[in-house]
Amino acid sequence: MKLVVQMKLLPTPEQAAALHATLRTCNALANRISGQAYEKKMFSRAGLQKLVYAELKAAGLSAQPALHVIRKTADAYTTLRSQIAAGLLGGENSKRRRKAESKPVAFRLDAAQPFDDRCLSWQMDAGTVSIWTVHGRMQRIAFTGRPSQLKVLAEHRKGESDLVHRDGMWFLYATCEVDAAPLNTDPVDWIGVDRGIVNLATTCDGANYQGRDLSRYRRAQARRRAELQRKKAAGSRSAARRLTRRKAREGRHAANINHKIAKQIVADAQRTGRGIALEELSGIRGRVRLRRHQRVTLSTWPFHQLGTYIAYKAERAGVPVLQVDPAYTSQRCPRCGHVARGNRPDRDHFCCRRCGLAGPADHIAAVNVRQRARTAWAFVSMPDPTPVQGKGDATAARQPAALGSATRCGRPSRKPGRPRPRS
Ligand SMILES: [Zn+2]
Predict the structure, then answer these.
(1) What pLDDT is recorded for position 273?
(2) In the structure, what pLDDT confidence band is assigned to residue 410 with cuts at 50, 70 and 90?
(3) Ligand 1 mean position, distance from CA 340 (Å)
(4) Where in the chain is the domain with CATH 3.30.420?
(5) Are the beta carbons of 360 and 189 closer than 8 angstroms?
(6) CA–CA separation, 301 vs 218, rounded Å?
(7) Which of 102, 226, 261, 279 is the Cys-Cys partner for 209 at CB 3.0 to 4.6 Å?
């Protein structure tokens, strides 16, 4: 499976100037080709290559960088087309879509640029790279990274790296191809994970990840953001720039926390021979009742990203992941099965109205997630399944492909009209 590791470059001023010039040249040329592609309605890589390769060479790019610039441009149009096809830019008459279609795709002058092994080589022992630039080949640019990432880089690097300029720093994002551990097809049990607002993740073991400190941080960030937005609305361009930077920084902060949570949960699962069960996330916004100050926090927390990180780290570790139906996991009693809104007197507490079972609400929800995974798994690993009438969902769950993909279990679907997957 593919992983991307991030290495920080430590260029001398002369090397940095060459890197700057390289990104600027490549992106300016990409913009020029993008214009030609748009004008001639020629978006395929091969077609563009015929059209502009000689021109790029004449402009000072060597062969590989020229091909990369062409590919980057063609890929950008492919992405745009698929975004339009998926309806991400709205319908045919939406303003956003018309705007996107009315002009060529544009690249920022410091947008990332890919380099392959012919334009970029790594000297792992010396901790340097040599890289093609428009000022000639730059030798011995020092790089550094976290020890775990350096190890992955040394052992598994394969393919291209992207040169990225961000916040005044230079990075290489190197692609690595690592072997995933063999999948544990016989997990002894499941770790149920509940994702929430105050506790970003709670497991059925009772482990809590990140609580109130982070909420405070995010509220403070939201306040500062609101202030910048006011200034931006008043026409301040520097506020607009600072806003963009702040959003990017918050995004990295969130990604970092999600990485840590995912790593811990996957490590626990691997060590104990268990799989991981997550709630399907569709509709978390509709499901959770919020206090006013939580709204901004929730609408910006990347819950989906946490799920993605858990999924890929689990794949690498050979840990199976199941997604279960989230309906009523917060209101259901795991001991007697009683479902009632009243089981949840407030956001933090669970107390069953029928049998009296009480506990922290997030923990109870995680236990419910585990139970659903156990039920689903009983279907998945049934030795010789006989078709069950009216349980199309369970039939789908028996397919091995259901691992890591949507699996409904527990109660029958709430919407009988919904199309059911066929086995
Ligand atoms: Zn109960």
Answers:
(1) 95
(2) very low
(3) 10
(4) 190-211+266-402
(5) no
(6) 9
(7) 261
Q: How far is CA 328 from CA 136, 182, 208, 324, 389, in A?
A: 62, 34, 20, 11, 24
Rounded to the nearest angstrom, the distance between the alpha carbon of 202 and the centre of ligand 1 is 20
Tell me yes or no: is domain 190-211+266-402 CATH 1.10.101: no
Q: What is the dihedral of CA 249, 254, 258, 260, to 10 degrees?
A: 60
Would you state the pLDDT for residue 1? 86
| pLDDT for res 294 | 53
Query: What protein residues have CB closer than 5 angstroms to ion ligand 1?
Result: 333, 335-336, 338, 352, 354-355, 357
Q: In this structure, what token pair is assigned to residue 230?
A: 């006011």
User: Rounded to the nearest 10 degrees, what angle do helices 45-58 and 13-40 cross at?
Assistant: 130
Q: Which amino acid is at 44?
A: S
The answer, yes or no, to whether residue 334 has pLDDT greater than 70, is yes
The first and second tokens of residue 304, run together, are 């989906």
Distance (Å) from CA 358 to ligand 1 centroid: 8
Q: Are 366 and 357 in contact (CB under 8 A)?
A: no
Cα(352) to centroid(ligand 1), Å: 5
Q: How much is the average pLDDT of 41-59?
A: 92
Residue 343 CA to ligand 1 centre (angstroms): 8
What is the whole-number distance in angstroms between the Cα of residue 337 and the centre of ligand 1? 6
**231-245 confidence digits (pLDDT tens):** 888 888 888 888 888
What's the CA-to-centroid distance between 351 and ligand 1, angstroms?
Answer: 8
Distance 269 CA to ligand 1 centre (A): 28
CA distance 194 to 334: 14
Q: How far is the CA of 333 from the centre of ligand 1 (A)?
A: 5
| Other C-beta atoms lying within 10 Å of the C-beta of residue 325 | 21
